[in-house]
Amino acid sequence: MFTGIIEAVGHIRRVQPKGADVTLEIATGKLDLSDVKLGDSIASNGVCLTVVSLTSDSFSADLSTETLSRTGFSQLGKGAKVNLEKAVTPTTRLGGHLVSGHVDALAEVVSRESVGRAIEFWLEAPAHLARYITEKGSICVDGISLTVNAVDGARFKLTIVPHTADETTIQSFQAGTKVNLEVDQIARYLERLMMGDKVADSHSDSQGVSLESLARAGFLK
């Protein structure tokens, strides 16, 4: 589990193909590895990776075909920068929101504009994820916990303050950049819960929440 508050920006030091899978070695920059051990999790661009080997300034992780197909790592090579965050502990400040490191899909940056000292981005999510994105809700983009400031269909706006731009890879985002997207967990679980007994039916409507189901649950009068 993570919070989406980036601790360091590292870079990919080595990409080693292993059949259809790959092993990545990631140089960790200023990330403190003194309390990291084999088997621990480190979020890399929002992807929960398991440490399989460790040095004083890097770790290696195996990426399956599932991870490569769901995330932007299939497009990143040696030298690419990545946002890093170690897993939370019981005493960690929850400065962002609860992030699992399980990426839902890729989103695309549609536009970038400077507004005062901030940077305003519009991104487009896959249509099937649009229902989980709401104004002033939380979203995780390449591992960064961010607030959605406006929504237009499957498009949503982010306003990035200078500190976030300086401490993450978001400074480099341009129109066309593909980013890892994880929607808010609470929205996903709520939708699943409201399907009730139908959730056990493999042929049930996967769209889940509707005006009818909201009314049955007592949310609409």
From TrEMBL:
Pfam families, per database record: Lum_binding
Gene3D superfamilies recorded: 2.40.30.20
Superkingdom: Bacteria
Keywords carried by this UniProt record: Repeat, Riboflavin biosynthesis, Transferase
PANTHER family: RIBOFLAVIN SYNTHASE (PTHR21098:SF12), RIBOFLAVIN SYNTHASE ALPHA CHAIN (PTHR21098)
Function: Catalyzes the dismutation of two molecules of 6,7-dimethyl-8-ribityllumazine, resulting in the formation of riboflavin and 5-amino-6-(D-ribitylamino)uracil.
Residue ranges of Lumazine-binding repeats: 1-97, 98-194
Keyword Transferase: yes
Domain Lumazine-binding: 1-97, 98-194
Gene Ontology MF annotations: riboflavin synthase activity
Catalytic activity reported: 2 6,7-dimethyl-8-(1-D-ribityl)lumazine + H(+) = 5-amino-6-(D-ribitylamino)uracil + riboflavin
Transmembrane segments annotated in the record for this chain: none
EC number assigned by the record: 2.5.1.9
UniProt organism field: Corallincola platygyrae
Listed name of the protein: Riboflavin synthase
Pathways involved: Cofactor biosynthesis; riboflavin biosynthesis; riboflavin from 2-hydroxy-3-oxobutyl phosphate and 5-amino-6-(D-ribitylamino)uracil: step 2/2
